[in-house]
Amino acid sequence: MKLAILGYGKMGKTVEEIALSRDHDIVYISSGQLDINELKNADVAIDFSIPEAAFNNITSCLENGVAIVSGTTGWLDKYTEAVDKCKSESGRFLYASNFSVGVNVFFELNSYLAKMMSGLDEYGVKLKEVHHLEKKDAPSGTAISLADQIIKETSYKSWNHPPKNDETSIDIEAEREAGIFGYHDVTYDSDIDTISISHNAKSRKGFAHGAVVAAEWILKQKEGVYSMKDVLQLNSPN
Ligand SMILES: NC(=O)C1=CN([C@@H]2O[C@H](COP(=O)(O)OP(=O)(O)OC[C@H]3O[C@@H](n4cnc5c(N)ncnc54)[C@H](OP(=O)(O)O)[C@@H]3O)[C@@H](O)[C@H]2O)C=CC1
Ligand SMILES: O=C(O)C1=N[C@H](C(=O)O)C[C@H](O)C1
Fold first, then answer.
1. Could you tell me if 92 and 114 lie in one domain?
2. Which helix (H) or strand (E) holds 101?
3. Whose alpha carbon is nearest atom 10 of ligand 2?
4. Which of 1, 45, 91, 207 is the most core-located residue (most Cβ within 10 A)?
5. What is the spatial distance between Cα 46 and Cα 50, in angstroms, rounded to a whole number?
6. pTM here?
7. Same domain, residue pair 65 and 109
8. Which catalytic residues are annotated (predicted)?
9. 238 lies in a domain?
10. Distance 140 CA to ligand 2 centre (A)
């Protein structure tokens, strides 16, 4: 495939490595203002940029017939607008807060566990994420996805960051520590016991590999808005 890489930082460079190892042509790399004529050479773009640039990168791709796979976090207040744009342009768009297979399995587990815990009022739930010191947004996109899944399955109505210790919402704690690629845990706690599930990334390769697989996959699809759940088709209990 002819690939554009939007955002050439830690993730953009890892995507480049994986895409080349799978024999793709990288036709455009941008780390700032887009050159639309260059962008148009691509079939699909993968965006790992910054929250302030993600929405414009997505809409520019959709307006120019380039399928877009976005992994940038921290811009989701405009997600619905991006979906509408995809529909009006008859484009192809996929966003994932986390592209790794492991975290997508973890998402399924989280949803299943939340369903089981719903109604067990003696337990309270909280989330924790830990990332490297350069991460710009907090809480992580993955932690927000985990909280949204729990909200869908239980009586919790919202999440808080920083934590507020308010019984009706889910506290999300975010720590920044050198060398951590991405750690997430979900903990249910009662006076009697504690139940925890966690995921720890050992490198950025899983994220980049998942994004390249998603880009290969979306090129085979018709117009639409997709997620990693569509790509991976896991054998889920949910
Ligand atoms: N969904 C997932 O699986 C994952 C998502 N992420 C997310 O991806 C994003 C990038 O992460 P990471 O690579 O670690 O961050 P980096 O800071 O290493 O890279 C971001 C890059 O974007 C560039 N940039 C700045 N402005 C623009 C613009 N207008 N258009 C395109 N690029 C621009 C920056 O350039 P400069 O340095 O010159 O400013 C930089 O090279 C974050 O939001 C992060 O949370 C990260 C890992 C996995
Ligand atoms: O910035 C990162 O590094 C990561 N960001 C994503 C997020 O915000 O969830 C995914 C992963 O945890 C790494």
1. no
2. helix 101-117
3. 98
4. 45
5. 13
6. 0.97
7. no
8. 131 (proton donor/acceptor), 135 (proton donor)
9. no
10. 6
